[in-house]
């Protein structure tokens, strides 16, 4: 996820955190989300022996930016299957044009993503949801890895956390790269996948940091988690 320069409109990043009306997710959508998690969890468990670590590190309330390395298409549903709270996703606007997929995305309340960044509309929606105490998943590398290593984090990728005073949950994924590499059209149906949730980084821990310093801090945390999970 990146934030393009042309989307940094005055009023979006200049306003302090403010109280907004809470948006209550409809009961059908909430039920759909949790029902979908069941087959998704079973899929990863059966084919990849998936395991999650760091459950106790997850904040149960408050705005939360879940920040992870990006290895494959598996990453979003995989993290959603392990996170104990409802997760908001980012989805490219082109996906909304395919009606069957658009229905699924709508039921998941996905946030529209522009080709060159999160975009003006996506920024407004993301800020509102974080201020409402929701959790949003982002991949600050902006794209899936080509070699399994963690790439550079895009500028502006963590600005949402600073603007909303949200906590950041460093998350590392291992095994998805081997299961479904970027150059492969289809996944390999067997393997071992591991996910670890690190200790949250609270707003007070990074409020005085520059955005560049925050990116380096979070990247270091995720790299450390990735090395830890490789031996599990």
Question: Can you walk me through this structure?
Answer:
- The protein is an alpha/beta fold and 232 residues long.
- It has one domain: Glycerol-3-phosphate (1)-acyltransferase (3-Layer(aba) Sandwich).
- 37% of the residues lie in helices and 14% in strands.
- The protein is built from 8 helices and 8 strands, in the order H-E-E-H-E-E-H-E-H-E-H-E-H-E-H-H.
- A 6-stranded mixed sheet has the order 1-8-7-2-6-3, sandwiched between helices. The chain has a two-stranded parallel sheet with strand order 4-5.
- Strand 4 (90-92), helix 3 and strand 5 form a beta-alpha-beta unit.
- The protein is globular, with a radius of gyration of 17 Å.
- The protein starts with 26 loop residues before the first helix and ends with a helix.
- The model is unreliable at 1-23 (pLDDT under 50).
Work out the helix count: 8
Residues in helix, %: 25-40%
What is the structural class? Answer: alpha/beta
CATH superfamily: Glycerol-3-phosphate (1)-acyltransferase
Total strand segments: 8
The CATH class assignment is Alpha Beta
CATH architecture level-2 label: 3-Layer(aba) Sandwich
Briefly say what this structure is.
Helices cover 37% and strands 14% of the residues. It has 232 residues and is an alpha/beta fold.
Per-chain topology:
Elements: H1 27-48, E1 51-53, E2 64-68, H2 75-82, E3 87-88, E4 90-92, H3 99-107, E5 111-113, H4 119-131, E6 135-138, H5 159-164, E7 167-174, H6 176-179, E8 194-197, H7 203-206, H8 211-229
Parallel strand pairs: 1-8, 2-6, 2-7, 3-6, 4-5
Antiparallel strand pairs: 7-8
Helix pairs in contact: 1-2
């Amino acid at each position: 996820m990146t934030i393009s320069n042309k989307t940094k409109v005055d009023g979006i990043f200049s306003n302090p955190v403010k109280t907004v009306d809470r948006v209550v997710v409809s009961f059908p959508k909430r039920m759909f989300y949790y029902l979908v998690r069941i087959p998704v969890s079973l899929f990863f468990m059966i084919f990849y022996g998936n395991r999650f670590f760091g459950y106790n590190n997850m904040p149960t309330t408050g705005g939360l930016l879940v920040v992870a390395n990006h290895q494959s298409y598996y990453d979003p549903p995989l993290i959603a299957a392990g996170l104990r709270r409802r997760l908001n996703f980012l989805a490219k606007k082109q996906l909304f044009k395919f009606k069957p997929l658009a229905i699924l995305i709508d039921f998941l309340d996905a946030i529209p993503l522009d080709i060159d960044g999160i975009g003006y509309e996506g920024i407004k929606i993301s800020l509102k949801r974080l201020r409402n105490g929701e959790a949003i998943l982002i991949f600050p590398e902006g794209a899936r890895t080509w070699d399994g290593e963690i790439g550079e984090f895009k500028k502006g990728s963590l600005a949402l956390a600073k603007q909303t005073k949200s906590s950041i949950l460093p998350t590392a994924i291992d095994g998805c790269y081997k299961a479904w590499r970027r150059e492969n059209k289809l996944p390999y149906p067997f393997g071992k996948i591991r996910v670890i949730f690190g200790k949250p980084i609270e707003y007070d821990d990074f409020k005085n940091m520059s955005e560049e310093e925050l990116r380096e801090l979070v990247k270091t945390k995720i790299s450390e988690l990735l090395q830890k999970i490789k031996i599990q």
